[in-house]
Design brief:
The protein is an alpha/beta fold and 195 residues long. Helices cover 56% and strands 12% of the residues.
Length: 195
Amino acid sequence: MQHLITTILEDSVRTKRQAIETQLDTLIAAADMLVTCIASGHKILLFGNGGSAADAQHIAAEFVNRFQIERRPLPALAMTTDTSVITSIGNDYDFDQIFAKQIQALGQRDDVAWGISTSGNSPNVVAGLAAAREQGLRCLGMTGQGGRIKDISDLTLTVPTATTARVQETHILMGHMLCQMVDQILFPHGAEASL
């Protein structure tokens, strides 16, 4: 078991290091996209399935509540939490439309649609990003090795592995990095800058 633990740890660290070191410019560009969105009075709409749904909710909470500094709440919404909306769309139309319809209802030009999919091919995430693009939202994708999300996002953060657990671990690290960069750019002096 000790060998298993250290093997998992080494694989996770290696995957994170490779993903982040090869995408430093993309991470900075994604932070700039989010800052521009928030500073111009717009919002971030996050979505994904399963573990990626949990990541969407986790990241939205970091923006709305706080990350590491005391500052005003920032506008972010996980579109994975309203079971009545999700199940009514899934029942009346199709599960593939659960995010697209919410984007159509809530998204505005210059908001950011942040779609997360380990495969990059989740039909409802792809449809959500496509709907966002049609409405003039900026699209940020997080995926494993690519997939269809890469083709329809303005920026895509990828993780170079087919192992779902390593992709998810790297996604949340990237999400935390983006939260911290956004805070540092918007509130360079900490709490006093947020008042």
